[in-house]
Specification:
The chain contains 45 helices and 14 strands. The chain is mainly alpha-helical.
């Protein structure tokens, strides 16, 4: 389970997190706007109020400027109108869920503390107030450029904090913690010398610590301050306390604990820093308030025990009879479970009574938190025991850790995810940005003191944390290796991670808890034979899989196709797999560490090659079906599914071009993915070309129609990349083979690429007829998707090289065909085609609107290829309307996108000429200096599409 909502922090410098990772808020006005909305979260903030908070002297057009900042803020947060910022009739509102804003959590904790204090639950009140005050990280609005917020809002926040400090100190003094509060009170009286309440608390704490003279000195100090600063004497409370200290009033003596006698429990002290997990801690504590049994589940090494111990320590105030740990890892006989728990609770019983009866008698009248750690190997026995204890002891709460649930009524399962890791490969994995890197840096400081995260190694550190799946145990073991190896060297050796991350000679626990292989072996031993075989079987998948894939690939001698769903459920229950059911198909995933272990087991079973062949066949069939259904109502769904299955498709292709695979099958997969425009859609043309050429080299005896088609497709990709010489070589070879083979499908592909060559390389008007012929051949063979692609290029060629009537008619025909097929991707390009015809032969203003609509659709479906040409064409159209400054920015943004995708316009003659013509027009209109500045602005924008939309 991962955080999927925003989290906001106002009690200090402004911070925004999404999925546990900071969102960069570099623009000062955006920070001011967001802070202004968060102060009144879930309420409509009038535009006038926001304007006053953003500007000391509002400029002309402040309302329009405010709208612009709202739009930019939404983009910074990565969401549009459906995001947290809502537009209302009189202003704006930011929607903040429960506990997503630290100010709300602070107020809620203080309110709960007041209720606890009123109910004489002083220990609980103190703990709640301590948790509330820990949310303060510094001065609110210190990084927000708004005098109105600093002058009007910040003081009120400080008053709330001071009130909480007073309550916290009162609670601690009542609990007899006089010495503990004195340093705090010394700081408070120095920072707030006119706050009489803090002086009174300090005097009382000093008196109860046996320091009566110092208490009287405090009174003299504050009296002098009040007279000097305000011209007044101390108030009644302070004066009366002074009199009672002077007379040593017996009522000032520290009372016994208001909560009655307490038992501390046996939780071990922490020996290393606790890193991250803030949201998981909050959720665990909240569940413990309402649920009798909470079970933390997850794979071995993920940090369940550490989280449980920290959560239990923080929740222990609510349990007068303490929080107790019973570690079941050493237990080998489930029948002795009750005795093990009794021993952990320190119950001195030597009788012949059953252990369960002893536990019931001990727990019946107690309010106690039991941490039952490592339950997975005795899960059934633990479930039976806890059912009895929870029924008999109403004051008992249990926090269990297990790799599988205990399956008893009332159990709340809370999956513990790995630590957050850097997911964007370009983002620096600094310690403040993700939990995994923070843990690595912290542990390395202790065992590899010379190691530092620097600009040189930060990318390697991020990849290391990703490859270790964010598993705390693996990261801690890697930190030890940093004493002798660099992060890069550890990465090079991670294919043998079970040996690399082995026992380091520090016997701090059972071997199955301190080595990576021991942890995974332990999970494997807990599975039955069918579960072990399926664990090994699903390790052939890369990046996840669905039920249909597992049913097709993994059945074996002892597991039928019908059994797969039940065994998958068992592996999910035992934390070997995770499952995401938020989409239309349940998606199963396995941590890379567990997958690598499964692959080793698969090889030991001798099943790796047969299952990889099944895996390859399944994804070859998927690629073929996607090509057959291209340019239809499921087109966008297929593109999304293929992108989701990218790791599996790569694994299948890789198997095909290795010694045990079938290169001809790989050739078919690569061809079908090219026919679906998968490589274009995912902006990975280079990868598509790699697989086509590699398979062509390894399959010289493949059927001639397949080779002709693949050579033509490879020529098409090379042409799109601007590699004219290679494209000509591929096309010539395809032509030689095609003349000897009369296959209709192969001839269609060949005609298509020859037409594309004539159009894009030679700008030959004869390409219009060639592409029309290719379209007819495709249609005759029932290749709807290929026919549509021929129609697309035919309409483009007509727009660039044909007359006005043909160009406009071809554009309309292309768009009508795409709409008739109900194909979302094709429709977006249909709009582009009509826009191109309008730009060159009709109304450029209309063309701007068509290109914008096309871009919106392409962005919505994640088409990275189409947006490149949409930006380029938008620059041509905007220039044609006379808006030369914006056109220059769009040219810069388009050049940035072209560079990112590796496309060279110089090899695509009509498009290159249109680009050069537009650039010259805009340069002449603006002048070199203005053009260069506008171009650089567009080229450097973080969101190029924003300029067009």
């Amino acid at each position: 389970m991962r955080i999927t909502e925003f989290e906001y922090r106002l009690l200090g410098p402004l911070e925004v997190l999404f999925d546990g990772r900071p969102v960069a808020m570099r623009a000062a006005k955006q920070r001011a706007l967001l802070a202004s909305l968060l102060i009144d979260a879930n309420k409509v903030v009038p535009s006038e109020t926001l304007i006053a908070r953003l500007w000391d002297e509002p400029p002309d057009g402040a309302r329009n400027a405010l709208q612009n900042y709202v739009l930019r803020l939404r983009r910074t947060l990565g969401c549009g109108s459906r995001g947290p910022i809502r537009t209302c009739a009189d202003g704006y509102l930011v929607h903040v869920p429960d506990e997503a804003l630290d100010l709300h959590r602070f107020d809620a904790l203080v309110a709960r503390a007041r209720s606890a204090a009123a109910a004489q639950a002083t220990e609980r009140a103190s703990a709640l107030l301590g948790e509330a005050l820990a949310l303060w990280r510094g001065e609110p609005f210190s990084d927000v450029p708004s005098e109105r917020l600093r002058l009007d809002v910040a003081p009120a926040l400080h008053e709330r904090r001071l009130a909480a400090l007073e309550l916290h100190t009162d609670a601690d003094v009542r609990l007899g913690r006089h010495a503990d509060v004195l340093p705090r009170l010394r700081e408070l009286t120095a920072a707030h010398p006119l706050q009489e309440r803090f002086w009174a608390q300090r005097m009382l704490a000093l008196y109860r610590s046996g320091r009566q003279s110092e208490a009287l000195d405090c009174y003299r100090t504050v009296s002098a301050l009040l007279v000097e600063e305000l011209g007044i004497n101390p108030g009644p409370e302070l004066w009366q306390l002074h009199q009672r200290v002077l007379t040593a009033d017996p009522s000032l003596t520290a009372p016994s604990s208001p909560d009655g006698p307490r038992t501390e429990g046996n939780l071990p002290a922490e020996t290393t820093t606790f890193i991250g997990r803030e949201s998981m801690l909050r959720k665990t504590r909240k569940l413990l308030e309402s649920a009798r049994l909470v079970t933390l589940t997850g794979p071995g090494g993920v940090g369940k025990t550490r989280l449980a111990l920290r959560a239990a320590a923080e929740a222990s105030w609510a349990f007068p009879h303490g929080a107790w740990l019973a570690d079941l890892a050493p237990l080998t006989e489930p029948k002795l479970l009750d005795r093990a728990v009794a021993e952990a609770l320190g119950i001195p019983d030597q009788s012949l009574r059953p252990g369960t009866a002893v536990l019931v008698e001990h727990l019946r009248e107690r309010q106690l938190l039991l941490v039952l750690d490592n339950c997975e190997h005795v899960a059934e026995a633990a479930g039976h025991l806890l059912s009895t204890l929870l029924t008999a002891a109403p004051g008992l709460r249990v926090l269990a850790t297990s790799r599988q649930g205990l399956r008893i009524p009332g159990e709340y399962l809370l999956p513990v995810p790995p630590l957050t890791v850097p997911q964007d490969r370009g983002a620096p994995p600094t310690p403040t940005r993700c939990e995994a890197v923070r843990l690595l840096a912290d542990r390395a400081e202790a065992c590899a003191p010379h190691f530092r995260i620097t600009r040189r190694n930060e990318e390697a550190v991020g990849r290391l944390c990703r490859r270790l799946d964010g598993i705390p145990l693996a990261i801690e073991l890697a930190a030890v290796r940093l004493g002798a190896l660099s992060a890069e060297e550890i990465l090079e050796r991670l294919d043998d991670r079970f040996r690399l991350l082995s026992d380091t000679g520090k016997p701090t626990g059972p071997r199955h808890q301190r080595t990576l292989r021991g942890v995974v072996d332990w999970s494997h031993d807990l599975c039955d034979e069918r579960e072990r075989r399926l664990w090994a079987g699903v390790s052939v998948f890369s990046g996840g899989f669905d039920l249909a894939a597992a049913e097709a690939v993994c059945p074996g001698d002892d597991t039928t196709r019908e059994d797969i769903v039940d065994v998958l459920a068992a592996l999910v229950h035992k934390s070997v797999l995770t499952v995401d059911t938020t989409g239309p198909r349940a998606r199963y995933r396995m941590l890379e560490t567990l997958r690598q272990y499964g692959q080793c087991r698969l090889q030991e079973l001798g099943r790796d090659i047969p299952l990889r062949r099944r895996h390859c066949a399944y994804y070859a069939d998927m690629a073929a079906r996607s090509a057959e259904q291209w340019c239809g109502p499921d087109e966008v769904a297929w593109l999304s599914r293929l992108r989701l299955e990218s790791p599996n498709l790569r694994a299948a292709l890789d198997f095909c071009v290795t010694g045990e695979g079938d290169a001809t099958a790989g050739l078919a997969i690569a061809a079908n993915l090219t026919r679906t425009r998968y490589w274009f859609f995912s902006s990975s043309l280079g990868e598509g070309r790699h697989w086509l050429t590699r398979a062509l080299d390894l399959a010289p005896t493949a059927p001639a129609p397949l080779r002709v088609g693949c050579l033509a497709l490879a020529a098409w990709i090379a042409l799109c990349q601007g590699d004219r010489s290679t494209a000509e070589r591929f096309l010539a070879e395809a032509g030689r083979l095609g003349r000897d083979d009369a296959d209709v499908e192969a001839l269609g592909v060949l005609s298509y690429v020859e037409g594309a060559f004539a159009f894009l390389v030679h700008a030959d008007a004869g390409s219009i007829a060639l592409l029309a012929r290719a379209r007819e051949r495709f249609r005759a063979h029932g290749q709807v998707g290929d026919a549509h692609m021929a129609t697309m290029l035919w309409a483009m060629a007509a727009a660039f090289l044909g007359g006005r009537e043909l160009a406009l008619a071809a554009g309309r025909e292309y768009a009508t065909e795409a709409e008739a097929h109900g194909a979302g991707w094709a429709h977006s390009w249909g709009l582009w085609g009509v826009g191109l015809a309008e730009l060159r032969h009709g109304d450029p203003h209309r063309a701007v609107g068509l290109f914008r609509d096309s871009l919106r659709r392409q962005r919505a479906i994640g088409d990275r290829w189409g947006t490149v040409w949409g930006m380029e064409a938008m620059a041509w159209a905007v220039a044609a309307t006379g808006d030369h400054g914006r056109a220059a920015r769009l040219i810069g943004a388009a050049c940035s996108l072209l560079r990112t995708t590796g496309v060279a316009l110089t090899g695509l003659r009509p498009l290159h000429e249109a680009h050069v013509e537009t650039e010259h027009l805009v340069r002449r209109a603006l002048g070199e200096r203005a053009y260069a500045a506008a171009f650089a602005e567009g080229e450097g924008t973080r969101d190029p599409l924003r300029l067009a939309l």
